[in-house]
Amino acid sequence: MARMTMIEALRSAMDVKLAGDPSVILFGEDVGYFGGVFRCTSGLQARYGEERVFDTPINESAIVGLAVGMAAQGMRPCVEIQFADYMYPAYDQITQEAARLRHRSNGQFTCPLVVRMPTGGGIFGGQTHSQSPEALFTHVAGLKVVIPSNPYDAKGLLIAAIEDPDPVIFLEPKRIYNGPFSGNPHAKSMSWAAHPAGEVPEDHYSVPLGKAAICRHGSDVTVLAYGTMVHVAQATVDQTGIDAEIIDLRTLLPLDLATVRASVEKTGRCVVIHEATRTSGFGAELIAEVQEACFWHLRAPVLRVAGWDAPYPHALEWDYFPGPERIARALKQVMEA
Amino acid sequence: MPDISTTTDGEHPVVPAQDAARRSRLQFPHPPARPDQPADFSAIVVPRAGILPVPPLDISASGCRDLALGMVRILDENNRPVGPWADYLGEVSADRLRQGLRDMLKMRAIDKRMLNAQRQGKTSFYVQCTGEEAIGCCFQRALSQGDMNFPTYRLQTLLVAAEYPLEQLMGQLYSNPLDPLKGRQLPVMHSARDYGFFSISGNLGTQYVQAVGWAMAAALTGTGKIAAAWIGDGATASNDFHSALLTASVYLPPIVLNVVNNQWAISTFTGVAAGKSETYAARALGYGIPALRVDGNDYLAVMAVSRWAIERARQGHGPVLVEWFTYRVGAHSTSDDPSAYRPRDEARAWPLGDPIDRLKTYLISRGDWSEERHVQAEAEILDEVIAVQKAVEAHGTFVDPQPISPSEIFLNVYADMPEHLRRQRKEMGY
Predict the structure, then answer these.
(1) Are residues A221 and A144 in the same domain?
(2) Do A222 and A243 share a structural domain?
(3) Partner-chain contact B213 A255, CB within 8 Å
(4) How many other CB atoms are found less than 10 A from the CB of residue B339?
(5) Same domain (yes/no): A138, A219
(6) Which one of B412, B418, B419 has the shortest CB-CB distance to A102?
(7) B239 vs A257: CB contact, 8 Å cut-off?
């Protein structure tokens, strides 16, 4: 076991796969020589050569389009979009091509592809360095959508994603690349060194896709969260004293409904938390599934705490980010209902 | 917006009133003729056959200017082969040429039968390639097993020349139980991996950059295979045309980038996609990619350039772009009526003629074919196509469906069916 940040864990996952599978290949903007703007691929080109790890032109459609062509031939490309906010030019290739290739060719061609993209806010990234576009992927049949919340899961899920036979959108919450985040921007920044999930095996292991993790057992209310919000939810629950059960979904599509259902049936209450904007966000799907599966167990309306329905602001970051105050208010509200 | 000529604050130049007539005006390209006008191809320059050289396989883009702006043609106005490209081709056996003729006749017979089948409601949709048969039929015969085309929906020619079973081709068009794609895809969106034919998508241009990725993978894994990308003139306007040319230029993978310029994108004249650029081939030169423009209705020219381009890619000299200059004789699709936007007789006026007629005339002039044999071959091929069509229709058509199991909807969305799809399949009753 080693101590790793999320960046190091992701790099380790790619290192393990590059070493163990000659069909794995990495590319994206600044991914090669420089090692990525977030250092996630640092040192990998030097170790594996530029036929395995290389830089691309600034063209997201090309990055994913090339990867679809390679994956169709049996390679396993793991490509990077520098920020999730910049995936839109690749949206055609992701949703119309990668997602549908297996289905439309009846399995003649497949797309074992991973598209990594740093996501989420909390870093004063403004409009185009903070977005959380997961709902734009969870709506697409044929994709898998994964978002880790800690180094251990990040490595295990990325290895599982690279080994998966289908296209995986792998969202990396950049706010927690270097350490967990309580949601209080004025608190001393934390590091993964002190966090149990910062202990990461150096060798190959995987965390299965489609399986949620219960990261705090409780009986009062079920909190559904993923990415950065898992930590904000945990910090908030610790302050409120409410005995919440916090579920880190880890994979949004396919959703681990069994774990969600078992928890809500036990607690009778549910709060959904995500950074993404509220309307038609992934929270809407979660709430719909919970009310359909658990209606007779619910003792309060299912609430959601989300980003406001506005573009992500710069100076007003902490008025926008769904932080501890808003989460605490929602928890209190469902408990009083 | 204030009128700039009235600005007197000293910060902006004052435009004299007499220059107002010189203000910017936009160009809106128009086709040479509309339905109420006679066909007019006077603006199309058809260079003499046989005047362009055969470049070395390792030619650079800068050496390709004449080839990209001119037109490689072998058959002259009397359908005799002339010039360096004819020499490059060398002696082509009568059997090989008759095979080419049969491929094209077969394609045209399929088009006719399937157009009628659509009119009869036996299939919901069809796309003909009339007039463009030489390009795909001939190019495919120059590829090797394992090479991969990334086609558009107007390249069933590739399947015909790859000898793809007609039962599967028609089964796909009828979405019946012979359909290899289980009724999931619109007719003509074929997929035939074993025949070097990548899955067709309705989204234009996407396959062009995927082909570059495939070719890169071929190079990385050392398979010795190449990719062939295909796009129409209209779709060269798509982002992925640029993405493909750029990345092909950066990584130099083994690929032939084909542009089929048939002058029309549904109702839109090719000038709208081309703007003021000289040819589509010329665009590649800006990316540092060698390019040629070719008479797409000249079977010999298609054969010579296909061999040259494929050999160039296979020998590791990197990408090459070929613009095949042709004309879309038929409607865009069975949902289209070209008499609404172009002259009815435009196809007859097309200066490069018909690819089947030209090859036939050449073969007859060689003494390797005759009018009688042609009529007989047409009849035989039509009989063969009709026989397969009847056999395929016995498995159901759109008017007489023998439906595929609805549970097919849920298969192959993923390698393994996730829980939510299992629930939905159960909800459907399967």
Answers:
(1) no
(2) yes
(3) no
(4) 11
(5) no
(6) B412
(7) no
| Tokens matching residue B273 | 């996609």
Q: Which residues of A touch B148 (CB under 8 A)?
A: 73
Do A186 and A267 have their domain in common?
A: no
Q: Is A203 strand, coil or helix?
A: coil
Q: What's the domain count of chain B?
A: 2
How close are the terminal C-alpha atoms of chain A, in Å? 45
Partners of residue A141 in chain B, C-beta under 8 Å = 413
Q: What is the DSSP string of B233-268?
A: TGGGGSHHHHHHHHHHHHH--SEEEEEEE-SEETTE
| Two tokens, residue B248 | 């092909």
Q: What value of ipTM does the predicted structure carry? A: 0.97
Mean pLDDT (chain A) is 98
Bridge-based pairing of strands A221-225 and A244-248 is: parallel
Q: Which of B306, B260, B243 is nearest to B131 (CA)?
A: B260
- Does residue A287 carry a pLDDT above 50? yes
Beta pairing partners, A108:
none
Q: Which two tokens stand for residue A222?
A: 């079920």
Interface test with B, best of A53, A103, A113, A163 (most B CBs within 10 A): A103
Domain count, chain A: 2
Nearest chain A residue to B150, by CA: A69
B227-247: average pLDDT: 98
Tell me the C-alpha distance between A301 and A298, whole Å.
7
Task: Tell me the pLDDT tens digit for each residue of B131-148.
Answer: 999 999 999 999 999 999
Query: Is A65 close to B210, i.e. CB distance below 8 A?
Result: yes
Question: Token pair of B134, please?
Answer: 């030489």
Closest by CA to B312, choosing from B54, B133, B75, is: B54
Q: Looking at the structure, tell me whether residues A188 and A223 fall in a common domain.
A: no
- What was the pLDDT predicted at B6? 44
Q: Is residue A129 annotated as part of the catalytic site, yes or no? A: yes
- Note the pTM of the prediction, 2 decimals: 0.96
Any B CB within 8 A of A24 CB:
no
* B22 belongs to a structural domain: no
Q: Is residue A205 part of a domain?
A: no
Q: Which residues of A138-174 are buried (b: 16+ CB within 10 A; e: fewer)?
A: bebebbbbbbbbbbbbbbbbbbbbbbbebbbbbbbbb
In a 10 Å sphere around its CB, with 0-12 CB exposed, 13-18 middle and 19+ buried, how is residue B134 labelled?
buried
Contact call for residues A102 and B413 (beta carbons, < 8 A): yes
Q: What is the pLDDT of residues B287-311, one digit of tens each?
A: 999 999 999 999 999 999 999 999 9
Q: With bands split at pLDDT 50, 70 and 90, how would you rate the model's confidence at B5? A: very low
CB-CB under 8 Å, B217 with A75: yes
Indicate if B393 and B412 belong to the same structural domain: no
Residue A292: its pLDDT value, please? Answer: 97
Nearest Cα neighbor of B131 from B157, B160, B163 is: B157
Q: Contacts of residue A255 in chain B, CB cutoff 8 Å? A: 420
What would the mean pLDDT of A48-63 be, rounded to a whole number? 98
Residues 235-274 of A with CB under 8 A from B: 254-255, 257-258
| Angle at alpha carbon of residue B20, lines to B16 and B24, rounded to 5° | 125
Contact status of A142 with chain B (Cβ, < 8 Å)? yes
Contact status, residue A285 vs residue A250, Cβ threshold 8 Å: no
Q: Using CA coordinates, name the residue in chain B closest to A106.
A: B181
Q: With an 8 Å Cβ cutoff, are B184 and A92 in contact? A: no
The residue behind tokens 């251990």 is: A152
